[in-house]
Design a protein that fits this description.
About 45% of the residues lie in helices and about 15% in strands. The chain is of the alpha/beta class. β6, α6 (about 120-130) and β7 (about 130-135) form a beta-alpha-beta unit. α2 (about 30-40) runs parallel beside α10 (about 200-210). The longest helix is centred in the first third of the chain and has 12 residues, at about 5-15.
Amino acid sequence: MTPQDASRRAREICGLAPIVPVLVVNDVTHARPLAEALVAGGLPALEVTLRTPVALDVIAEMAKVTGGVVGAGTLVTVQDVKNAKAAGATFGVSPGATDALIDACEAEELPLLAGAATASEAMRLYERGYDILKFFPAEASGGAPALKAIGGPLPQISFCPTGGVSPQNAASYLSLPNVICAGGSWVAPSAMVASGDWSGIEKLARAASVLER
């Protein structure tokens, strides 16, 4: 997969909805009903973070949900990439980027949303052929004002800000011309997931799905 093909597919996925749920799932039995609730609420692109022992199993289960587009987040190593692809992930998200990680994603044909927090990091990835990136950690890196400033000299690069994005500040990110979507965990609160409140999560997803961008 070329960087251009990867970026094209990443743009398509990011264009599906204004918010990409960032999910930390501890129980495999929650995977399918959680994905079904989010998809029903209008958020089809799902990022399952590789932060729990069952994350790969969760990806495999969510990949069975009709209408869902399931990706793996927190890709850090080459093995992470291979495992994610084998589990059924159709895109990857990383907090940063290394040559080895990018090479692995290209070899596995896994579109990557690579993380960048500075203009130099964004330029390096753009030089390699990637024109849509993850801005992470968004709030800690200056928030929407910082991303707006980066967009001045680098309008050709689009971003999905993640990290500290909330219902209170999501609009400030989504209003920027260099933002396609944003990653957020608030649409699947751990307490609601643990209690199986799928209708409540669907309601949160529905509210997030109509945010303007």
